[in-house]
Amino acid sequence: MARAFFRLQKFLRRTQFLLLFLTAAYLMAGSLLLLQRTRLVIQQGSRGTPASQALPVPEEMSRVGITDPRTLQNPRPGPRLLVGMEGLQEPALDQRHSPHWLVSRNSELRQLRRRWFHRFTSDQEPLQTAGFKAMKHTTEHKGTYMGCFTHDSRERTLKGAVFYDLRKMTVAHCQEACAERAYSYAGLAYGAECYCGNALPAAAAKPEECNSECKGQKGSVCGGVNRLSVYTVQELQAARRRRNVIYRGCFRAPENLTDTFPASLIQPNLTVEMCSEFCSKKEFPLAVIRGQECYCGYPTGRFPLREGADGLRCSGARNASSPAGGKYCLVYQTPVQDTRCTDRKFLTTKSKVFVALSSFPGAGNTWARHLIEHATGYYTGSYYFDGALYNKGFKGEKDHWRSRRTICVKTHESGKTEIEMFDSAILLIRNPYKSLMAEFNRKYAGHLGYATDRNWKSKEWPDFVNSYASWWASHVLEWLKYGKRLLIVHYEDLKQSLIPKLKEMVEFLNVTVTEDRLLCVENNRDGNFKRSGAKQKDFEPFTQEMKDLINRYILTVDEALRGRNFSGLPREYVPR
């Protein structure tokens, strides 16, 4: 027995290394298997709902009052997703259509919606990249390379327009953007930032210091760290330049035009194209015409462009010697960007107050972030990470949402725990009809696209409305219930009275801004994520059953707001 034990001990000593190797191999195999399974789950989650299916409702959710609308036999289902609030009374409605009492959404539902909400980012990014790779071989930049120059983000050498594309930036992309804005030079820095201007930077740098590869084109140089690769811009056709000039209206001329506007030109037979081109070369966003006089400048306290005059009063503006011509002027927006409010940065010290910018999806949160960033000069953060927004210059997207380095944090969450993490919040509310359509467009066509008629007429649209309409109501009600300090902002009021409402938001964030900066924001109000026009549909997307459902939620939210001493919803929300 002793001899057998001795032999076994000797064998184990000789095979010690072998056992160690087998143990390591076993652990590695287990780790790889776990990673593979995790990846599979993530991919399944990121794909979201197949095109032929509606939003799935797990079996566990049916126990808390959440029902899959596809399983309902009643062709006129009532709402099942509402959030209860103490002290609120149910609106008096017909029993057949009366809403069930609002029940709180559990964590599973929030995860489900969050996964669906961010489906587009994960699906769309590879498509954009693939499309660009195909374009890369066919698009070559035009114009002359002027060299490598120094670049200071605080005192920029190219003072015109600036934009970012942290995924697809190329030399040709930057040149095209600067050409559309009527600039002569395009400069690229950090591989992803584009700057435009009409004068070359003064300080040249060594050629090898421009060593950052363009994010969207391998082998091409797009500046470097604090360095600009500068190219000339090929001039656009005259017809295309004219399309980029926007008529702002007829306005009363300031008392002293020379003091109000920093550049001027007197030209016989002056035309809009002459004045616009002159002001574009001077890098001013406004071209003002009075008779044969052309003035260039910005909207200011002296000339805020808020109260336009009747267009008939400007009929004599082309003749400055006439009484009417001397008092009124024609104002045009040149392709040049107003850059007085484009500088942004992270907070230098951590914010003591943790502020949320909360809204239902499709309520204009991205637009509100654009306005806040340009008004305050500070980046906004996000509870999520949206690569499309980050690529277009919302640098707070990559910053951890609890870093407190941003002025406020975007969120669509509405659970008690998520709400109570914030010290205060700007609650942005939009007409649910508009919000639902905007979010449906984003879900199927991205931030700037439109869903197809096939999407609207499929079963996905009614299922979407059945689920998301109740979320619109529950989102507002839960923030009213659990929010500590709220500023209610209605999207429609912000759009109609931008400066006064933006002032309220900035004061709520405890930031002081100048009047000129706010006017600059108003001049750049659209940002990079405005859909081009309203795509008209030849059918009504909302059925009567949908309208009955949404209208009951509108009445409930309106009553809740008034119960908390806030102004109710705008009249255009409330059904009549």
TrEMBL record:
Ranges where the WSC domain occurs: 142-234, 244-341
Keywords in alphabetical order: Repeat
Residues spanning the signal sequence: none
Classification via InterPro entries: P-loop_NTPase, Sialate-O-sulfotransferase, Sulfotransferase_dom, WSC_carb-bd
Keyword Repeat among record annotations: yes
Keyword set includes Repeat: yes
Superkingdom assignment: Eukaryota
TM region positions: none
PANTHER family: SIALATE:O-SULFOTRANSFERASE 1, WSCD FAMILY MEMBER CG9164
Family: Belongs to the WSCD family.
Protein name: WSCD1 protein
Gene name, Swiss-Prot/TrEMBL: Wscd1
